[in-house]
Amino acid sequence: MKRTAIYPGTFDPFTNGHLDVLERALNIFDEVTVVIAENSQKNALFSIDERKAMIVEIISELKGVDVRVLSSGLLADYARQLGATAIIRGVRQVKDFEYEFQMSLLNRHLYPEVTTVFLMPNVKYTYVASSIIREVAMLGGDVSKFVHPCVMDMLDRKRTELHEHKS
């Protein structure tokens, strides 16, 4: 039986920290589905289609990875639907763990057969968050060490669009 997991997130944008966690998950699981979740409480810079396109390009060399979108419904139900046995969550700091721990208990209640697996990224990515990457990039800062070149290109395009729109 294949060991399958889902790796959910908004991934706005997908960072090298996300990639690091995904690669760690692939050392444990045969298949990992990256699940891009829409979050109405977050003001996304990139559309779902843009995020999916970036992730598909980034993971093109990886085996055993799929990318899907969850536009509505519970993550636990989606995990069950996909036959996943685990939910991958990246944890950078204690603050992340407290929130993720609560979510894992709720998901366990909703879908007892799924296990949440917490993975820590490489230490060089522990302070990298998509929100910080977006902010620094939109202000013209260099975030190229923290994102794939295709993400850097998309960030540059968004910054140009936003500046042109303001002018």
Describe the structure.
- With 167 residues, the chain is an alpha/beta fold.
- The protein has a single domain (4-126), classed as Rossmann fold.
- Helices cover 44% and strands 17% of the residues.
- It starts with a strand and ends with a helix.
CATH architecture descriptor name: 3-Layer(aba) Sandwich
Report Rg: 16 Å
Assign an overall shape.
Answer: globular
End-to-end CA span = 57 Å
Strand order of the largest sheet: 3-2-1-4-5
* Number of distinct beta strands: 5
| Strand percent estimate | 15-25%
CATH topology: Rossmann fold
What's the short version?
The protein has helices spanning 16-26, 48-58, 75-82, 94-110, 130-138, 149-166; strands at 4-9, 31-37, 65-70, 86-90, 115-119. The chain is of the alpha/beta class and 167 residues long.
